[in-house]
Amino acid sequence: MMKAVGSTRPLPVTDPAALIDLELPKPKASGRDLLVRVMAVSVNPVDVKMRAWTTPPEGQPLILGYDAAGLVEAVGKDVTLFKPGDAVFYAGTKFRPGTNAEYHLVDERIVGKKPASLDFTAAAALPLTSLTAWELLFDRLEVVPGKRVGGTLLIVGAAGGVGSILIQLARRLTGLTVIATASRPETRDWCLSLGAHHVIDHRRPLHEELKKAGLPQPNLVTSLNHTGEHFPAIVEALAPQGKLALIDDPDLFDVRLLKPKAASLHWESMFARALFETPDMIAQHRILNDVAALVDDGVLRTTLTQPMGRIDAATLLRAHAAVESGTSRGKIVLTGF
To answer: Pick from 223, 267, 216: which is nearest to 240 by CA?
Structure first.
């Protein structure tokens, strides 16, 4: 048996029954799966959404959690990339039980070797946001890593988990001018410390903020939260023939606003490769290994800001509440059962 934390019905984060401690059978590895002993997990907005929206089948609690760092306990017969004892980090999938459990099954093709320079707590902050930021910048917006070309990237909502990695990737691996948005002094300072060239306030009209700072219209924009609220302002700020990429789940908005500028819209979901087992699914293994190397070389840093304690229902509820508040900076991580 193993300890786990799960949800039996969608409830507000203020309800103590929204997440409960469980004892479940320990799973067994087969095929290309790794059985990972989970040492640390982080909490993402997707955890909050799934808890609040999902009704699991009767008698089958929903085990949340996507980010994890841990040790490979056992491997399936078709595994070639890892062996027992390897330290790993990864983001799981929406269609399998999550990482809020002592032991977790995950396909080796979406797992990377943990950065050697980080402990499990610091490493657990990175996988989902690193994959999202990497795919957003290099796959969806088609920026070429290592190619020092010009251009401007505006990151709307930059102080959260994805933005904290995206700032670093864009500043360290490209020649883009990086403009972040933040609305509070502490989040502004955070974005600057990660490498943003400029920070503007997304509570004010974006095009006016850019003009006031003497900055050009960005040819690339990433919107990481509240896209529906910001969409008209983003379109006004975006350069003609520019590209807009987003990751959140906004209410309906009028995409036709992009047409006069011949601008394109791109959506990023780091779960897509695993969900559809795309031919390039193993790209996430390679991305995480590249991220680990960049961390160990001192190019990227962990975005851990709030180590919150042990992995149990009470602590996870506090973490969910912090993420749900919309004011968290960087990543929240829980360690050990």
So the answer is: 216
pLDDT by position in tens, the chain (length 337): 999 999 999 999 999 999 999 999 999 999 999 999 999 999 999 999 999 999 999 889 999 999 999 999 999 999 999 999 999 999 999 999 999 999 999 999 999 999 999 999 999 999 999 999 999 999 999 999 988 888 999 999 999 999 999 999 999 999 999 999 999 999 999 999 999 999 999 989 999 999 999 999 999 999 999 899 899 999 999 999 999 999 998 988 999 999 999 999 999 999 999 999 999 999 999 999 999 999 999 999 999 999 999 999 999 999 999 999 877 789 999 999 9
Burial class (CB in 10 A: 0-12, 13-18, 19+), 94: middle
Per-residue tokens: 166: 């995206």
CA atoms of 24 and 16, how far apart (whole Å): 20
**Cα separation of 281 and 279, whole Å?**
6
Can you read off the two tokens belonging to residue 168?
Answer: 């670093």
Q: Tell me the C-alpha to C-alpha distance, in Å, between residue 98 and each of 44, 60, 101, 184, 260.
A: 12, 13, 7, 33, 43
Q: Tell me the C-alpha to C-alpha distance, in Å, between residue 70 and each of 159, 266, 312.
A: 26, 33, 17
SS3 215: coil
Residue 42 has phi, psi (to 5 degrees) of -115, 165
The reported pTM is 0.96
Q: Which residue has the tokens 């042990």?
A: 310
Number of residues in the chain: 337
The burial class, CB within 10 Å (0-12 / 13-18 / 19+), for 160 is: buried
Between the alpha carbon of residue 144 and those of residues 138, 150, 242, the distances in Å are 6, 11, 16
- E strands, the chain, are 2-7, 20-24, 33-43, 62-63, 67-75, 87-91, 103-107, 111-113, 152-156, 177-181, 198-200, 220-223, 243-246, 264-267, 304-309, 331-335
